[in-house]
Amino acid sequence: MRILLxxxxxxxxxxxxxxxxxxxxxxxxxxxHEVYLLSGFTRHKDLKxxxxxxxxxxxxxxxxxxxxxxGSNKAILSPITWTQILHAISIRLKPDIIHANNMTxxxxxxxxxxxxxxxxxxxxxxxxxxxxxxxxxxxxxxxxLNYDRIIVVSEKLKAELNNIFVLPNIxxxxxxxxxxxxxxxxxxxxxxxxxxLKAVLHVGTTENKNLFSTLYAxxxxxxxxxxxxxxIAGSWSQYLKDCLSTxxxxxxxxxxxxxxxxRSSMLYLLGRxxxxxxxxxxxxxxxxxxxxxxxxxxxxxxxAIPQELIIHGVNGFRVxxxxxxxxxxxxxxxxxxxxxxxxxxxxxxxxxxxxYDIDSIIKRILEVYKAVLYGDA
Length: 377
Description:
Blueprint: E1 2-7, H1 16-30, E2 34-42, H2 47-55, E3 62-67, H3 74-77, H4 79-93, E4 97-101, E5 114-118, H5 127-131, H6 133-145, E6 149-152, H7 155-162, E7 174-176, H8 183-187, E8 199-203, H9 211-223, E9 229-233, H10 238-244, H11 249-252, E10 255-259, H12 263-270, E11 275-278, H13 287-294, E12 299-302, E13 316-319, H14 325-337, H15 339-353, H16 358-374
Parallel strand pairs: 1-2, 1-4, 2-3, 4-5, 5-6, 6-7, 8-9, 8-11, 9-10, 11-12, 12-13
């Protein structure tokens, strides 16, 4: 089967969407399929070397990329231009199926069977998008109408989209298939309790990742004399700078910014800390939480994380209000100091993460492809 995977944004972005696409392409290639990838703007001259090193994959698809010129990425921001590029490449490549990701526009007249995966609605946190919600809603409906089947990564996201989709029969095309993970490969990164640091990890440096709440929680623990180290991973941003500027010199000694990490470095750190803290304002799924579970590391999360990933008191803790730093601190203290609790939750993390093994996930995606190509029967 010749498959064209599509990301309107850049495949270079270290996020869940790029991870999803590259792991999907790797597994499809292993199964003998011919895989291509159309990605938005790129900056790295040796793109393949960068992706192999950053995302911990062994096989890559053939690439069609839009290179940035003079710092501009207008081609990727214009739906009309992007639609024309995608349409032209699909005519040239003649794929059996196109699998796009997150609101990729497409020509109505193009007859190539096509699937789209929605990864979330974090765009609605943007004030401009929220102000133009009717237009956003119409655009989402029009985009969805142009695809034969829709994959969503969680039941939570399916419910959110059902409140947005208004065109008839769209909801009938939706399948819930979570992101998969190489369970056996990544499990090896998890260390035993005696080899763990008295530390926690926060991943993400955008406002949505709510670093302020994590910092307040750690500050609360330090004030009470509880020894803890906080690692912060993510790209440098103004929001991160504002967060770090609130720290005292003494607090800075217990908090370390480690920058954006390759996947292997992230897994190494996840396997060494006692807990992941992720009080996000919005998530539809979280590859970081799944990787943490696979390393046997419990997570403390907000209610934004889907219920099926983190079960309160079983493989981590859930905080109803993402701004409730006192609860974040309480649960972090429990995981730092109660060894028996930590070992129980760590074991549960490993058991639950088995459900997301990549092999079973890929089989479900291939079933969607076959349904589009040959009919649901």
